[in-house]
From TrEMBL:
Signal peptide residues on this chain, from the entry's feature table: 1-34
GO molecular function: carboxypeptidase activity
PROSITE patterns, A to Z: PEPTIDASE_M14 (PS52035)
Highest taxon above the source species: Bacteria
Lineage: Bacteria, Bacillati, Actinomycetota, Actinomycetes, Kitasatosporales
Annotated protein name in UniProt: M14 family zinc carboxypeptidase
Amino acid sequence: MRTTRTVPARPVLIATLTLATAGSLLLGPDTAGADPKPVTREGAAVDDHAAQAPASAARRALAAPEETSTGTATRGYPRRQVLSPDPENPGDKSLKLGLTPYHAIAPKLNALQRLGDRVSVEVTGRSAGGHRLYLVTVTAPETTRQARAQERMRELIENAPAAAAKSPEIKRAYKTPVFVNSNIHGNEWEGTDASLKIVERLATAKDARTRALLARSRLYFNITANPDGRIAGTRANAGGFDLNRDFVTASQPETRAMRQTELDKQPAVLLDLHGYVNGTLIEPTTPPHGENYEYDLFLKNSYANALGMESAVNALGHTPAKDGVEPAQIPFRDQEEGWDDWPPIFTPQYAAFHGTVAAHTVEIPLAVNNEEYDELPVAELRRRSAVNTAVAGAAIRATLDHVREHRTSLIADQIEVFRRGAAGAPQVPVSPETVPGVPGIGPEDVYTTDFPRAYVIPPGGSRTQRSAPAAARLVDHLLANDVRVTRAARPFRLAGRTYPRGSYVVDMHQPKRGMANALLADGRDISGDVSVMYDISGWSLGRLWGATVEQVPSGSLRGAPLHPVTEATPVARVPAHGDLRLRLTDPREIAALNSLLQQGVRVRQAPDGSVIVPASARREAVAAARAHDVSFTATRLTGGTPLHRLRVAAAVTPGELFALREMNFDVTPVSTAVLNSGFDWSGTDVLFVSAGLDHAALTAPARSALDTFLDDHGLVGRGARGAALNAAADRLAVEPVEGNTDANGVVRTENTGRVTHDAPAHAFVYAPLWFTGLGPGVRVEQSYATGNPLVSGHWRPLRDGTGGPAAAAGQASVVSGARTVLFGTEPLFRDHPKGEFPQVARALFTVAHSGSVEESG
């Protein structure tokens, strides 16, 4: 247990902070308010609003990345460019707070570049809403030759860490990379303004400390990571995504831009500026800690920098009595649990896998968003924003001081992260001896893992393996995350097993082994370790993305015919003769099918769930195969059910809406409000509901129109909201049982129906649901496995013993019948579990094309 000041578990922590907020109201109308629930779980358990994101946001996110001004050639600094101004937008939500609106950023950056030779601006991409993403670099000028030397040293640190550790040039001349990320949540604004103020000061400061800092550092500022949300005053981007939950999946262009910055710049130190927790919250975090990190190095540096930031923030002189600001807090020291760094979906935690040894979420103190934004006087909002900007600025300045004073050890520890990975060295468990100077380290902080020798991903394509598109997608995703992958030129044996030619191998003796393992490993069941988690606790791509991934615990790769790859081998193939068969086991195959249907190709669905394309549409099939990288096979199958292009009405979460569009479905977002306004059902084939549609809240005409539609068409429902609509409309005779709503993770399943045919034997759950009391005609499509179905994640029973994995074991997780399919799992969660997407697609096609699931089986 902690030996320093502690705060009890999450429920008491929330109550304590709520009381602190209530108490501060006694100080008068201008006092500050803390977020009453700083440790709050986000996602399906609380996200019951139907997504309304425009299709254009999905098109931008799914399109190939456009050229950016960063380029690929190494150039010197400064790298100046004149940014064209954006149209003035009086509706920008920043204006009310007295902060910098998005349309003022480009002119401001132009002015900063003109202040001297220290500031450079590059465009790293565009947001889902089409806004430019700006990266500002502040450093002493470099010639092209000097910039190339920096790049060479950066590559040496990652690719030859043992040599880098001995390099006199690196010790003498390598510039410490620092990354300040601001405004990833759009309605947490002030990090942007603090960064602009810091950049302006650095651009002109003449003191020796600043000159020394810039001579030995490169400072990178992502001015606003989420311009869409900044403008709209929303946490999410234009696609409805919380970008600080997207790093494992990288579905959004903003996330991919941040990822690329981390790969290209390799920061040793990172700040991610957020709001609002009073007092200012500065990571490192509470347990559980990510088991794939070199956590001893991470904790050593992050805690030391946190102390400096805490001192700088408190030195601003804010007090509860004077202005409602509580002293800063460091969760590792001051809390027991509830603010963990377990999943790599957050910016600082993701950065740790790319060599960042001091990484922090910093939650500035005074709430100005949500109800505060709407209800507080403008003067009070601006007072709070000014305080928040000062706090964020203090955190940045303290970090820069730390970098200047500890440059040598920061770079040495970054090199050591990569050296351990490349050498296959064991992790070093944290303890008072291995991380001296950090108080309160106990056994509850020790999280390590046994890295396998390798992972093998067979190429797919046979009946006994998962789909070839899934294997290719997974390999490309690993490469995009800077994981090294090789491919076998011929069959080979490893650890007593033979693998086919074309198999992909991830050698776990590589600098970023932590990243590779975080993506591919099962993870672990941490239900017994802590009582509550901040967000998801299991996410395995190896189990959820549809490819076969085999872990090889030990063995030698010496002599294996393996060659490095820079991209997966394309799988597109169309036989030259005969009718064509396309499996529907991957979202790319679903997208290809929908493109064919959109063109009017007469596609039939075979009894096994695959589809048959006539030989007369070979040209269209070739185009679809190339566009979506899928493989058709020749077939002599006849008959089958004719398919047509589906028009889907969807009351779903943002991640689900995006996944449907990723599969190329024609989707119209709906909600209770949309139906009450008089929705025209005539253009709809099927309804998918998981959020934001309440049957009881519908007007009488809207309810009648919905019931009439469901009688003639069909329903696909997910989760508690889908099950509630099913019950209200009196469709499928089942009794839904809600598990612990805090539960999430990867579970084992048994697939027994057509909707789940060829699906992975694993699923993702978040607030899991199952179905009992199955009436006549109800078919079990999928069940939770017997025993303990949880593979990785956090799923505890409720206090009365119900709602846990034991209660779910063997129960139906997906059921069908009477033109209805209900899911108790999360097959489209945040656009992540790619291997489960086809279950939803099959459900939509089955419900829309048949009187019932049974009739089409």
